[in-house]
Amino acid sequence: MRVLFVAHGPSHAPWLVPLAWACRLAGHEVQVAARPQAVPKVTAAGLLAVPIGAAAAGEAFARRRLGGSAGRPARVPADWPVGPLDWPEERRLGWADQLLGLADSLADDLVAHARAWRPDLVVHDIGALVGPVAAAAVGVPAIGHAWGQPMGAYFLREDEVPPAYLRMFERFGLEPRIGADTWIDPCPPSLALPYPVPRLPMRYLPYNGPGEIPDWLREHPRRPRICLTGGGTSRTIDERGRQLLDEVDGLDAEIVLAVARPEAFAGQPLPANVRLTGWFPLSALLPSCAALIHHGGAGSGMTAAAYGVPQIVLPESPDSTQRVWGEQVTRAGSGISIGSADLRQRPGTLREAVTAVLGRPHYTDRARSVRAEIEAMPAPAELVRHLERRAAAGI
User: Fold this and answer.
1) Which ranges in 64-88 belong to alpha helices (H)?
2) What is the chain's Cα-based Rg?
3) Phi, psi at 140, each rounded to 5°
4) Planar angle of CA 16, 21, 26, nearest 5 degrees
5) Residue 343, CA distances (Å) to 60, 325, 329 in order
6) Element (H or E) spanning 136, and its range?
7) Crossing angle for the helix pair 130-138 and 89-117, to the nearest 10 degrees
8) What is the Cα–Cα distance from 39 to 50, expressed in whole angstroms?
């Protein structure tokens, strides 16, 4: 079986790696189509990458916010899975514009590759709306792959479908793919949000990229170790760095500042209890941690969940996907979310949250319960059997 995976962007590509490797280890051929910005993430995982689209075009659509109303559906149903369901309609439509514009910029390359390579199945990030177009071009099933939150797009009824989505299919002479299929979802029940697309659960196996284990990490920490990170792409922690460092200064804890841009802290005096490491895989660090402080990225958050580590989430804005992750963690009881306004207006808020998470067993107990949920979900190798059946059945 040939499986064509389609990534959405650099921060999303790692989500596809465990299932892609499960397919490879089961004896199947795998290729991963990705924008140029995401290709290094794919090749670093030892997988074959297929560059699609132009870097500049992809960045332009990724930066887009709200476009005109032309090409939008006449209405947005309350259960439409584009962005958080409580976002205002205009915000959700704006994100759909982004996803559709980006997909359109990738369609020529991806369809051409699909027609040349002839995969038996397409597995696409739910934000990569170009995936169903490529699957339609070769007449094979398309299956979505979620990334910890149901924030992609899927058009379940004809009155939801924007003309821009239809035009992608029409220009290749294809019938549009409309209707419910399946999304592979690694999010455990306690953290999952409802959405109308059928869900196929899969155990989350943390993959944060390659790295090396430093000497200090081989030693058991003498006091609680806390990771402070903004993930691989967010600048939130960098921008708030001085305030956050002041709030953890003097805590009876070892703070590991694992950031993608350590130069943002160059020349700054660091508290005695802070270790600046730069970025390296959270899967190496979090097993030794008592808590994770992060920006609300689903990758960072799900890695903490997989290791049973409580979280303190610092979302950058009220209408961000990071805010939604903070709410998921708070609802599960496995952490605390602190809004940006509270951080600005109430000095000491982060310090209070760290003290609460370290001092109340409830947070660790709930985090470990979430870990148990993840461990009970089917492993990626089990999902390969489902992919094989789908490919054999065709559409």
Assistant:
1) none
2) 21
3) -125, 165
4) 135
5) 31, 17, 18
6) helix 130-138
7) 30
8) 8
Rounded to 5 degrees, φ, ψ at 296 are: 100, 15
Structure-token pair, residue 261: 């841009």
The C-alpha angle 41, 45, 47, rounded to 5 degrees, equals: 100
Nearby residues of 116 by Cβ (< 8 Å), 6 or more positions away: none
Torsion angles phi and psi, residue 294, rounded to 5: -150, 175
How far are the Cα atoms of 4, 21, 97, 232, 369 from residue 295, in angstroms, in the given order?
A: 31, 28, 25, 11, 22
Q: Are 233 and 208 in contact (CB under 8 A)?
A: no
Angle (deg, nearest 10), helices 298-306 and 361-375: 90
Tokens describing residue 307: 């290791």
Instruction: Say how far apart CA 183 and CA 193 lie, in whole Å.
Output: 13
If one counts every other C-beta atom within 10 angstroms of the C-beta of residue 137, the result is: 20
What are the DSSP calls for 3-38, one per residue?
A: EEEE--STTTHHHHHHHHHHHHHTT-EEEEEE-GGG
- Is residue 370 a contact partner of residue 305, using CB atoms and an 8 Å limit? yes
Q: For residues 106 and 52, what is the distance between their CA atoms, to the nearest angstrom? A: 6
- Per residue of the chain (395 residues), give pLDDT as tens: 999 999 999 989 999 999 999 999 999 999 999 999 999 999 999 999 999 998 877 666 656 544 444 466 655 566 666 666 667 777 777 778 888 999 999 999 999 999 999 999 999 999 999 999 999 999 999 999 999 887 787 788 887 788 899 999 999 999 999 987 899 999 999 999 888 889 999 999 999 999 999 999 998 999 999 999 987 666 667 777 788 899 999 999 999 999 888 888 877 889 999 999 988 899 999 999 999 999 999 999 999 999 999 999 999 876 678 888 999 999 999 999 998 888 888 989 999 999 999 999 999 999 999 999 999 999 999 999 999 999 999 87
pTM beyond 0.85: yes
CB contact set of 345 (below 8 Å; sequence gap of 6+)? none
Helix, strand or coil, per DSSP, at residue 327: helix
Single out the residue of 150, 161, 237 nearest to residue 196, CA to CA: 150
How many whole angstroms separate alpha carbon 82 and alpha carbon 90?
A: 11
Of 316, 116, 288, 344, the C-alpha closest to 230 is 316
